[in-house]
């Protein structure tokens, strides 16, 4: 475990993504993965009120519901660092004070808990003044319903403005940033957000850390994976650069006798200010391929090899 930036939270270096719970993993499968993650020492779980509204037959809230039922069944809420989000679900859209208050109560109910450890603005809402959004988050923190707040999918200028508003008005401050960042999605984060995160002491918790499955090595030229729900997104990386990244990962994983996903996540963990990349697992077999990343320290030579392949 390690401190999560400037918060009082201690977390495992791999955050378990909850987007699969109630979607590609049913309740029983989700419980099995969650139990295995905790048994391996994990304690940091990420979800959102909108998960998994994008799945056929789902409305949203399924992931939080499954997770809440598991927490109650295991009686382990106090040992879990729980992150969820508000603002991106079409049933609870935006970051108005009224929506934040209502969404937080809904999430607390589904999760079966009296507090959320890390509560994200899931995406920016330019229709609501930042002062109003941050005041609403501040109320939740002061009420003890939220311990810390964080931001996801913000541009660097808007995030800087939000931090300035919090400092000026004495409001709760975003303590973490969840950007889209991985070996094949580097430019947007590294161009502006990385410097801001460093300057503002924000812990970075990348989502799509395995590039929708591409960085597992499962998707390669010629493979027929048409039945995979993530195949379309993953195949978008199968260009010349993507093939070079896979070759570098293959080389390092083979020499270390570890999985390709573990090397992919270890690269992220080695980046400045990254606290814990977020990765999901539908089965315990998938989970066992990502957990070793918590114990891998890549050498400078290995990091350079991956850097050259991925730029």
UniProtKB/TrEMBL annotation:
Highest taxon of source: Bacteria
Gene Ontology MF terms in the entry: aryl-alcohol dehydrogenase (NADP+) activity
Enzymatic class: oxidoreductase
Keyword presence, Thylakoid: no
All residue ranges annotated as the NADP-dependent oxidoreductase domain in the record: 13-307
EC number: 1.1.1.91
Keywords (A to Z) from UniProt: Oxidoreductase
Presence of the UniProt keyword Transcription in the record: no
GO CC terms: cytosol
Pfam families: Aldo_ket_red
Protein name (record): Aryl-alcohol dehydrogenase (NADP+)
The organism of origin for this protein: Haloactinomyces albus
């Amino acid at each position: 475990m390690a401190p999560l930036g400037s918060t009082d939270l201690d977390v495992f270096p791999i955050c378990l993504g909850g987007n699969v719970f109630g979607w590609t993993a049913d309740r029983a499968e989700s419980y099995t993965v969650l139990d295995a993650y905790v048994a391996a020492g994990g304690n940091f779980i990420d979800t959102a009120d909108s998960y998994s509204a994008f799945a056929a037959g789902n409305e949203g809230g399924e992931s939080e519901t499954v997770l809440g039922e598991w927490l109650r069944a295991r009686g382990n809420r106090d040992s879990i660092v729980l992150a969820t989000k508000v603002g991106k679900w079409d049933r609870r859209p935006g970051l108005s004070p009224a929506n934040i208050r209502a969404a937080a109560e809904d999430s607390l109910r589904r999760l079966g808990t009296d507090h959320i450890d890390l509560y994200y603005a899931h995406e920016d809402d330019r229709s609501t003044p930042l002062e109003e959004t941050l005041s609403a988050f501040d109320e939740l923190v002061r009420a003890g319903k939220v311990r810390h707040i964080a931001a996801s999918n913000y541009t660097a200028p808007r995030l800087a403005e939000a931090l300035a508003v919090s400092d000026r008005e004495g409001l709760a401050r975003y303590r973490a940033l969840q950007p889209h960042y991985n070996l094949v999605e580097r430019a947007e984060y590294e161009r502006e957000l990385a410097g801001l995160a460093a300057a503002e002491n924000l812990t970075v918790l990348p989502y799509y850390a395995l590039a929708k499955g591409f960085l597992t090595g499962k998707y390669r030229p010629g493979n027929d994976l048409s039945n995979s729900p993530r195949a379309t997104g993953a195949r978008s990386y199968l260009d010349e650069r993507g093939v070079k990244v896979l070759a570098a990962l293959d080389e390092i994983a083979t020499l270390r006798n570890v999985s390709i996903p573990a090397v992919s996540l270890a690269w992220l963990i080695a980046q400045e200010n990254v606290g814990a990349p977020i990765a999901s697992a539908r089965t315990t077999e998938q989970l066992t391929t990502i957990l070793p990343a918590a114990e891998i320290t890549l050498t400078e030579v290995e990091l350079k090899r991956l850097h050259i392949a991925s730029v």
